[in-house]
Amino acid sequence: MLTDPPASGLPRYASASSKSKAARHEREFIGAFSRRRASASASAASSAHRRQASASSAARIYGLIGPNGAGKTSLFNVLTGIYMPDSGNFTFDGAPLDRLKPNEVAERGIARTFQNIRLFQNLSALENVMIGRHIRTRAGVFRRGLSRPADAREESGIESRSYELLDYVGVANRANHLAKHLAYGDQRRLEIARALATEPKLLALDEPRPG
């Protein structure tokens, strides 16, 4: 089981695994989601999020439970800007979080993994994590082309932190392997490392252990 990430604050976690043992939340979530389908509108997912958001707080783990097609992933898609809600709104850390693009949501401190793994398959494990890390850096693509000493130091720090996160999830020995050549479980771990690289306040894990 993972412990705290090295040199990093503990984010809040929201797991979409249907096998979560958060039994005390089960009756509430099942009632909210059992009448929904995977094709439910984004507004339904947004409404469910409003009910859940009031219960979340720092350094807590929550389980989002519901049958297949209940709308768990749809909720995550609304939360992270992939789906736009038909109506309603929600806040995060006291500020509105609706109508934002996925990169803007990540900048606000929400990261996620996906039910169907989404990695840069033709990049190495290390490069995948470094991409996630760049959202917290100052130098953009054009500045990096100038090869300034400060930018080089920042890039070195990105690489070092990415190695730390790979070690944290247990795939540091495969840092230079292409993502597509990793075993399924290692790809899952790599997704978590990439999400942690964004320094999230809230980490949403969409079926991190399916089956």
What does this structure look like?
This protein has 211 residues and is an alpha/beta fold. It has 2 domains: 11-108, no CATH class; 119-200, P-loop containing nucleotide triphosphate hydrolases (Rossmann fold, 3-Layer(aba) Sandwich), CATH 3.40.50.300. Helices cover 40% and strands 9% of the residues. It contains 8 helices and 6 strands; from the N terminus they run βααβαββαβααααβ. The strands form 2 sheets. A 4-stranded parallel β-sheet has the order 2-1-6-5. It has a two-stranded antiparallel sheet with strand order 3-4. The longest helix is centred in the C-terminal third of the chain and has 21 residues, at 149-169. Mean pLDDT is 75; it is low at 17-55.
What topology emerges from the helices and strands here?
Blueprint: E1 12-15, H1 23-33, H2 42-53, E2 61-63, H3 72-79, E3 91-92, E4 95-96, H4 102-108, E5 110-112, H5 125-133, H6 141-144, H7 149-169, H8 184-196, E6 202-205
Parallel strand pairs: 1-2, 1-6, 5-6
Antiparallel strand pairs: 3-4
Characteristics of this structure?
single chain; about 210 residues; alpha/beta; Rossmann fold; 2 domains; four-stranded parallel beta sheet; 8 helices; about 10% strand
Quick description:
Helix content is 40%, strand content 9%.
> Order of strands across the biggest sheet?
2-1-6-5
Number of helices: 8
* Percent range for β-strand residues: 5-15%
> What percent of residues adopt helix (DSSP H or I)?
40-55%
Topology as a string of helices (H) and strands (E): EHHEHEEHEHHHHE
**What profile does the largest beta sheet have?**
4 strands, parallel
Unreliable spans are 17-55
What structural category arises from helix and sheet content? alpha/beta
Distance between the termini: 18 Å
Q: How confident overall, as mean pLDDT?
A: 75
Tally of strands: 6
* Inertia-based shape: globular
Report Rg: 18 Å
Tally of distinct domains: 2
